[in-house]
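TASK: fixed-backbone design
INPUT:
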């Protein structure tokens, strides 16, 4: 079992959700977050004053899947979240980690059956 964590631009969420749904992913957790990487924020003008926005709004997705689904899920997320053309700084990141155990609280099922 694997945990796929992706940080993407908020307006790409529906595209990613649809891509994952099309490949049969049945569960996803979405968290609104703020952060920065190479993008390092940007400057904006408000009432004539310029100010820097350091932390940009992002969406964090967490998806628990069977190990054999990792390649498909990563491909679906990266394709749907990538900006047109060659992509742009700030498109996001995908992290893959091992998931030691899963327990479905309602039924007590464990392991991949609980996914």
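OUTPUT:
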């Amino acid at each position: 079992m694997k945990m796929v964590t992706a940080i993407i631009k908020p307006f790409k969420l529906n595209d990613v959700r649809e891509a994952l749904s099309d490949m049969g992913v049945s569960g996803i957790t979405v968290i609104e977050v703020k952060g920065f990487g190479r993008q390092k924020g940007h400057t904006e003008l408000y009432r004539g004053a310029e100010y820097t926005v350091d932390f940009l709004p992002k969406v964090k997705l967490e998806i628990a899947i069977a190990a054999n689904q990792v390649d498909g899920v990563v491909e679906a997320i990266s394709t749907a979240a990538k900006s047109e053309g060659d992509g742009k700084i700030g498109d996001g990141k995908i992290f893959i980690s091992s998931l030691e155990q899963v327990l479905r609280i309602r039924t007590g099922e464990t392991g991949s059956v609980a996914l």
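COMMENT: The longest helix spans residues 70-81.
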